[in-house]
Design a protein that fits this description.
The chain has about 450 residues and is an alpha/beta fold. It has 14 helices and 17 strands. The strands form 3 sheets. Strands 6, 7, 8, 9, 10, 11, 12, 13 and 14 form a 9-stranded parallel beta sheet that branches. A 4-stranded mixed beta sheet has the order 3-2-1-4, with no helix packed on it.
Length: about 450
């Protein structure tokens, strides 16, 4: 691609707003130059329409669940919780074809771009044909996700999932989990297949569904295969109290306690949800260097509970955010509900702010945390508006109602807390413009295929 020169009146550089920033994109789609204080744009530079933010990583996504979003908001019995939702979700998981998955994922990925994400980590446990038989190419559904990401223009981290049993004391999977069955060797093969394909903007790591869904022996085998290779390693952990209780019953320890004691996680590891964590577990994760991935809109939708955000922040554990079940597809909403949940719990405002550490802005502290944590979750050594990082950027529209009249220094605060699900004006991924005036060039065709897939499902 040809080099490009962009000029922003305001851009998020070094953890805060900088004025008059010159951004040079090299031929590989990386930032070759990020220079604040260039008051006069040089000849040939594109003047961007508003303030510029780096794109965020959606660190936890199940793309196929976009087909289920909004369809489980009625109660059919006296109780409705995560487990009853899961049983209904399996109905979609058992029916969707590779072609339908690509259509659903492409629609989702366009929506994620509109929501300010430029990379998505797919926690990919849907592996086989509807009857549970293996596809001739075991990566068939993974390629459907990669094709969808290429169509949308978003970056993708594929995380094939180790999934072998229905619970701590179960010998295998339930019949309605037949599409998920994997072994450690199969997960490693899938990861290597994705990496060997060298698809643009695509990388891969591995995932363990949860401690309840994979035996210690299989997890150990997977970790021996990973060895010291630098790749993301994700796991669902401590999302539900039933999981905590079952883990204590089966192992004598809480899930995060057991994981830190037995698996020795390091900075490659991402603990997804980590909702029910006690202070000793937070300290153990902090000591390990691992990060956590929080998905506030999904965790609220499923009634999971509220994690100890204050404790995680105080321990300086890396934090990323994810869209998970796709009931929310906008990072501003996720950051807003991270703090709103704590406000409701503690009856305080701006719980996440840390003026004592020079961080008085709630939005800025959470955004910077998600920016850094998201990079780790996707296996990206560099991320953001920094030389050498992929040239991803969000150009905000300063005329949307939530930003109109707001002082430039409060732009991010208003974007997160006073603007309803805004779309960026323009989105760049690897230097390529994928959204213009809030629209994707192929959004009509992608939406049509999504509608057809939904009608068939």
């Amino acid at each position: 691609m040809p080099e490009a020169l962009l000029w922003a009146p305001q851009a998020w550089v070094g953890g805060g707003w900088q004025e008059a920033v010159l951004l040079r994109v090299d031929a590989l789609g990386r930032w070759a130059e990020v220079t604040p204080g260039v008051v006069t744009p040089p000849a040939g530079a594109t003047r961007l329409a508003g303030p510029v933010l780096p794109g965020l990583v959606d660190a936890h996504s199940h793309a196929f669940q976009r087909a289920f979003a909004g369809l489980a908001e009625r109660r059919d019995s006296e109780t409705d919780d995560f487990w009853s939702w899961r049983d209904r979700m399996y109905g979609v998981a058992l029916r969707i074809t590779p072609e339908q998955l690509r259509a659903v994922a492409a629609q989702l990925y366009v929506e994620l771009l509109r929501g300010g994400y430029t990379q998505v980590c797919e926690f990919h446990y849907l592996q086989h044909a509807p009857d549970g038989t293996r596809y001739a190419d075991p990566a068939t559904l993974g390629w459907a996700l990669a094709d969808a990401a290429a169509e949308a223009g978003i970056g993708l981290t594929v995380l094939p999932v180790l999934y072998e049993r229905a619970g701590f004391k179960q010998p295998g999977l339930r019949p309605d989990q037949r599409r998920f069955a994997t072994t450690a060797a199969g997960v490693l093969d899938l990861q290597r297949s994705v990496m060997a394909a060298h698809r643009p903007l695509v990388n891969a790591g591995v995932a363990i569904h949860s401690l309840r869904a994979a035996s210690p022996e299989a997890i150990s085998e997977l970790m021996r295969g990973v060895a010291d290779v630098d790749m993301p390693i994700h796991i669902h952990v401590a999302e539900q109290m039933q999981e905590v209780d079952d883990c204590v019953d089966a192992t004598g320890a809480r899930p995060i306690e057991w994981l830190c004691r037995e698996l020795w996680p390091d900075a490659r590891w991402q603990l997804v949800h980590a909702t029910h964590a006690v202070s000793a577990e937070i300290a153990a994760v902090a000591d390990s260097g691992a990060g956590i991935v929080l998905c506030p809109s999904t965790e609220a939708n499923l009634g999971d509970g509220l994690t100890d955000l204050v404790g995680w922040l105080a321990a300086q554990v890396p934090i990323a955010i994810g869209s998970d079940s796709q009931v929310g597809r906008n990072w501003a909403e996720e950051l807003r509900w991270l703090d709103y949940g704590q406000r409701l719990l503690r009856r305080e405002r701006n719980v996440s702010a840390a003026p004592q550490h020079g961080e008085p802005s709630t939005a800025a502290r959470l955004f910077n945390a998600a920016l850094a944590g998201g990079a780790h979750s996707a296996g990206q050594a560099l991320w953001g508006l920094v030389k050498g990082a992929r040239a991803d950027a969000l150009v905000l529209d300063p005329h949307v109602p939530g930003l109109l009249g707001v002082a430039p220094s409060h732009t991010l605060d208003a974007w997160v807390f006073a603007t309803d699900a805004p779309r960026p004006h323009t989105v760049y991924v690897a230097g390529q413009q994928v959204l213009t005036q809030g629209h994707h060039v192929d959004e009509a065709a992608i939406a049509q295929r999504f509608s057809e897939a939904m009608a068939a499902l």
